[in-house]
Here is the input.
Amino acid sequence: MMIHVEEGKGGRDRKSMLSHGLLDLLRDYWREARPDGWLFPGLPRVNPISPRQLNRAFASAKHMAGVTRSAILHTLRHSFATHLLEAGTDVRVIQVLLGHTKLTTTARYTHVATKTIQNTVSPFERLKDLQDLTLRRGLE
Here is the structure.
């Protein structure tokens, strides 16, 4: 359940996760399109889909879905990382999935994970709970 990405962002190869639902969609696509060579061929068909063709397909999909917010393909990468963070995924796992060599690069995504920040219990609250427990014990 892994996808091998060749020459991804930064020209590096990496492995990424493949969900069962996406695998089912890709299988359906393959059965229908029966592409020769590349799963997503470009023009000419002996080449993989180009970044320009991919950008056009993304813009078309956005339009068909009624999405009016400004977004580029890189927005999907940002959204992926943010959703993983908000779901509680360890930032080091996200680092590997995004192919970052430095954790500080991945940490940039944490500024948009406001749900995670809101759900984080402050150490001050934990101290307050400990103080309340201490006071209760003193009264017993």
Summary: The chain has a mean pLDDT of 85. The first helix runs from residue 20 to 33.
